Amino acid sequence: MRRRLHTCLTFVALIALATLAILPVACGESETVAAPSGEQSSDIRETRSGEQIFAMTCASCHGSEGEGADNWMVRGEDGRLPPPPLNGDGHTWHHSDGVLYGIVSDGGLGLGFGSNMPAFKDQLTGDQIIAVLEYVKTLWEGKELDGIALRQYQRDSSADDPYPATD
Ligand code: HEC
After folding, report:
1. pTM beyond 0.85, yes or no
2. Minimal-distance CA residue to ligand 1 atom 8
3. Confidence category of residue 52, pLDDT binned at 50, 70, 90
């Protein structure tokens, strides 16, 4: 019995030591990983990565993984819809590239419906809008409806309505 207790205590001590040894490494690593992206993202106009643009300008409303608001189908008191999921769980993939570009560039109001989706044309360049939309599409990877991959469906529907040309 005593011996078992001893073994047990040694084990606990070993785990504690191991944790102490790992902790600084883990913290150190996360710091070095975070630093460069922090530098890059200081000015949105310099940012070309769709993923970073998403984190900086879209995630606050649509969720860090594009999951949208919980109640996204229920209109708020202002009669407007909350931010929907962009990750393939909603219907974003029903829209062609041309329509998606218009929604982000001109916002919901620009497209003529009462909406809390802001216009980004003064904040993002055309290339950045395309980059962030291409990132959004990666969130649909592996998702399908009735055996059709969402990305394929959306690609087909964009054939006649591509992104506009950007300078
Ligand atoms: C202030 C909150 C807010 C921010 C920030 C925001 N959105 Fe939205 N977005 C909305 C809301 C609300 C809607 C729903 C509009 C409606 O149907 O009235 C929406 C709708 C959309 C739609 C249409 C989705 C669909 O399924 O039809 C797309 C695409 C979209 N947003 C992309 C983006 C992107 C990309 C960004 C970042 C560049 C962004 N949004 C930033 C609030 C926001």
Report:
1. no
2. 117
3. very high
Residue 14 reports pLDDT greater than 60: no
Mean pLDDT over each residue of the chain, to the nearest integer: 82
Confirm or reject: Cβ of 63 under 6 Å from ligand 1. Answer: no
Residue 131 beta carbon below 6 angstroms from any ligand 1 atom: no
67 alpha carbon – ligand 1 mean position (Å)? 12
Domain boundaries, the chain: 1-40, 43-158
Four-CA torsion 62, 67, 72, 76, nearest 10 degrees: -40
CA 125 – ligand 1 centroid, Å? 17
Q: CB burial class (10 A; 0-12, 13-18, 19+) of residue 125?
A: middle
CATH architecture of the domain 43-158 equals Orthogonal Bundle (1.10)
Under 8 Å between Cβ of 94 and 157: yes
